[in-house]
Amino acid sequence: MKKLTGKAILFGLLLTMLTSACTAPASQTPQLSVSTPQPTQTPPVADLLPQHGGTLVIANGAGIPRHFNPALISGSPTILIGTQIFASPLRYDENWNPQPYLAERWEIADDGLSVTLHLVKGATFHDGAPITSEDVAFSLFTVKQNHPFKTMFAPVTGVETPDPLTAIIRLSKPHPAILLAMSPALLPILPKHIYGDGQDLLTHPANLTPVGSGPFKFMSYDPGKTLVLDRYENFFIEDRPYLDKIIFRFLSEPNAQIIDLLRQEAHIAPNFTDFSGLNILSANENLIVTSQGYEGLGPINWLAFNLLHPPLDDKSVRQAIAYSIDTDFIIKFIHQGKSKHAQGPITPDSPFYEPNIPKYEVDLEKANQLLDEAGYPRGSDGTRFSLTLDYIPLVPSQQHDVAYYIQHQLKKVGINVIIHTSADLSEWISRVSNWDFDMTMDLVYNWGDPVIGVNRTYVCDNNKQGAIWTNTQNYCNPEVDEILTQAAQEMDPVKRKALYSDFQFIVADELPILWINSVPYYTIYNQGLGNPPISIWGMHSPLDELYWINPPERNYANIPTLTGDESLVKKTGINAIALIQEKGLYDALEVFQDPLEGFLDTGESGLHVLGVTRQGKVFLDNSGQISPGMDITGIQDDFGNPILTIFLNSATPADGTDFQSEGIWPNPNTNKVSPMSGWCGNLSENDVICAIVWQNNAGGDE
Q1: How far is it, in rounded angstroms, from Cα 681 to Cα 571?
Q2: 3-40 b/e with 16+ CB inside 10 Å = b?
Q3: What pLDDT shows up at residue 669?
Q4: pTM for the whole structure
Q5: What are the φ/ψ torsions at residue 23 (nearest 5 degrees)?
Q6: In the chain, pLDDT over 70 holds for what percent of residues?
Q7: What is the DSSP letter of 463?
Q8: Which CATH number fits domain 299-518: 3.40.50.720, 3.40.50.300, 3.10.105.10, 3.40.640.10?
Q9: Contact predicate 592/580, CB 8 Å
Q10: What distances in angstroms separate CA 262 from CA 149, 382, 527, one per listed residue?
């Protein structure tokens, strides 16, 4: 056997299992080339001695996970969390080099038919049990049998465990992406003594209360709202992690992420794609915006067809739809020129990308001709047939906005599109994974190598009902299967590229999917952080090296003194300011939302607390009437006075003052517009807190 350690690497996306060590040529390392806002300053350089301590708050807009076990499910919502809780055999740096993690070294056989992992000594799970080769074997077969990426470990025939620290992975054929498949996002090492207890893995209770071996351990989860992870004191890498705590806050709206980042309530946001928000965030002196760190993902935005549903089982109909959609318009106008074309199933940043496959230029005459020839003439109302269209209720610029544009375009060729709106990611997953759709927008990753992230969508036997991000289109072509099978074991990069080229030409003609654009992902992080996650997996990597150089300072204003004769709104507002300064915004919000605590009246008075920046962005509304991030600068009362000016003037005296207003602002309980009164005071130099009531209770004594 020949050793492949940290210096013996697999180059670029080709990841060829070489029998002698070589270094990746720079020309073959994929680079993300999208229009990127320039950072406001140079990213901080890691100190020689990173600091310990502090809490990191992640403004997570990637969606709410169904559970936290990435051995069973794909997708950012689970993986962003799972890579903190579970360790993997290897990890990767920003240059596509595999690095030791749970495996301190590894060896690949000369014939490419086995990989031997040597585990670090003394590594334990979060419950104190030792990590052994038996756990590696159990985990690998858990992924092989349950994960939607069927081809990822298809060649694995067995895992031998000659001693507790040695695992020998046996392969039926060479696997050019085997090391990449052992990354944190793809092969979490599970404790066999917990997950191997005979219960159904897909519904195992530990999926929601996981025990792992990663740098952070599960502490608590408020479903759909907040997840808390604490530092694992006995992590197998000495002196890490540096942070004490990580808090994930699930924020589905980009505006909510933006306001939390600007106010430094949150410190990092992964997978950010809101283009208008990027300009705002890039201009803030406390934040750094970067696209580095997503090279391993290769996300593509596409329109998928359910081939089980006529008339979408007809290739001519699918091609007609493609000729109806102007992807240039989507990229130039909807995406502001910040995305780029994805003409096929492999991302343009991959060395396997085939640039010569035909592009479906918008041609409505051609689309109408194809539909006529397919036997779908227009009816008396001009409509040929109706189709449903779903979209992921996240990343509006890539999903919602494109879906409604497609609806508009297909109407021009006589196709009536009915858009299905999902309440959340789970609802969309349930519908699409169970094939209960005609068409759906989707956002899918290439995962570094086609054998991992591309094959799964097109091979015949990966149409797993109930499993998302598989072959949910129910596409099947034996010729494509044969090509992908050959490419998955071909070690010659030139021959591999030729095979994937043939594959791309075939599916571009048969069109089970209309590929629209590659998705530019950004990480937004606080400039006070050191060692930001910029490996090929970005925020989908363990954050054990991340630390605070300069944690944010609150710089709160002085709290006005209560004398006992204040109006109800003034007393409520002052108490709200004091509570936020004591507990922090999100912990205080739990109190604000309890009517028994005196900050919210669900009766006629409509008493509630509002927080707004001096720029007019709402960051707090315990009544639920206004979403975080909403801009109120355009709202005026009946006399033409901007409501923001009224709030700011009320907060101008050191101890604040009461105000009165009439007009546009409705009572959150009755939805009636009537005279309101309130009091505003300064939370900080930039933030104002107001208490508001309506009608006879406005400003009255308690």
Answers
A1: 11
A2: ebbeebbbbbbbbbbbeeeeebeeeebbebebebbeee
A3: 82
A4: 0.86
A5: -105, 140
A6: 92
A7: -
A8: 3.10.105.10
A9: no
A10: 37, 50, 12
